[in-house]
């Protein structure tokens, strides 16, 4: 039985945001180290890769998506705050009422406060990742690495050990574009 000691999670894959150095060809033979992005793209969708896939092709794409997520989340917080100001003091419990023939569900004040707190936390975490991304001078990608994809995992581990790749964030979900 094989026991894995790295890159293990409860799902079938682990998500990464990674910076890596583009390999410079050897002046004698022209050989280069593997390009992580091209390597992942080459196995994506094949029977060998299982769930290994590129989720964001570059830092610009990741930054745009994270910035959009922060803006949308802040809008949601503002909306929740304004809705509950309009409704005066909210009940301590969830309520449903019929107004103009439509059913209106109101969350309790406690649930709304918890939701706002959670959204603010999401913004803080996302901003921290954004700051790390903007500091990187290397290539940046986001990808999911399948638990079963031992070849890519080994290459990735060796890149980290050699210093040619650096994990910016692990288990961080990049919001999809809507």
List the SSEs and their pairings:
Blueprint: E1 13-20, H1 36-43, E2 53-56, H2 59-86, E3 95-99, E4 102-106, H3 109-135, E5 139-146, H4 150-162, E6 165-170
Antiparallel strand pairs: 1-5, 1-6, 2-5, 3-4
Helix pairs in contact: 2-3
Backbone CA Rg: 22 Å
Sum up the overall morphology in one term: elongated
Listing every helix as H and every strand as E from the N terminus to the C terminus, the arrangement reads: EHEHEEHEHE
Number of domains: 1
DSSP strand tally: 6
List the total number of helices: 4
Q: Which stretches of 5+ consecutive residues score pLDDT under 50?
A: 1-9, 88-93
Give the strand order, joined by hyphens, for the main sheet. 2-5-1-6
Structural class, from helix and strand content? alpha+beta
Rounded mean pLDDT is: 78
Helix content: 40-55%
Taking the alpha carbons of the first and last residues, their distance comes to 43 Å
Beta-strand percentage range: 15-25%
Give the biggest sheet. Answer: 4 strands, antiparallel
Written description of the protein model:
This protein is of the alpha+beta class and 178 residues long. It is 43% helix and 20% strand. The protein contains 4 helices and 6 strands, in the order E-H-E-H-E-E-H-E-H-E. It starts with 12 loop residues before the first strand and ends in an 8-residue tail after the last strand.
């Amino acid at each position: 039985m094989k026991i894995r000691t790295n890159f293990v999670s409860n799902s079938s894959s682990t998500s990464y945001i990674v910076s890596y150095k583009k390999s410079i060809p050897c002046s004698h033979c022209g050989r280069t180290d593997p390009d992580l992005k091209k390597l992942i793209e080459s196995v994506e969708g094949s029977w060998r890769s299982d769930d290994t896939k590129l989720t964001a092709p570059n830092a610009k794409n990741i930054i745009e998506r994270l910035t959009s997520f922060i803006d949308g989340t802040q809008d949601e917080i503002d909306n929740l705050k304004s809705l509950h100001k309009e409704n005066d003091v909210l009940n301590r419990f969830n309520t449903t009422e019929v107004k103009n023939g439509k059913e209106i569900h109101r969350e309790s004040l406690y649930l709304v406060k918890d939701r706002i707190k959670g959204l603010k936390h999401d913004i803080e975490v996302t901003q921290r990742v954004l700051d790390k991304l903007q500091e990187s001078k290397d290539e940046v990608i986001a990808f999911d690495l399948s638990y079963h994809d031992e070849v890519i995992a080994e290459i990735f581990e060796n890149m980290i050990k050699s210093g040619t790749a650096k994990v910016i964030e692990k288990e961080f979900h990049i919001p999809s574009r809507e």
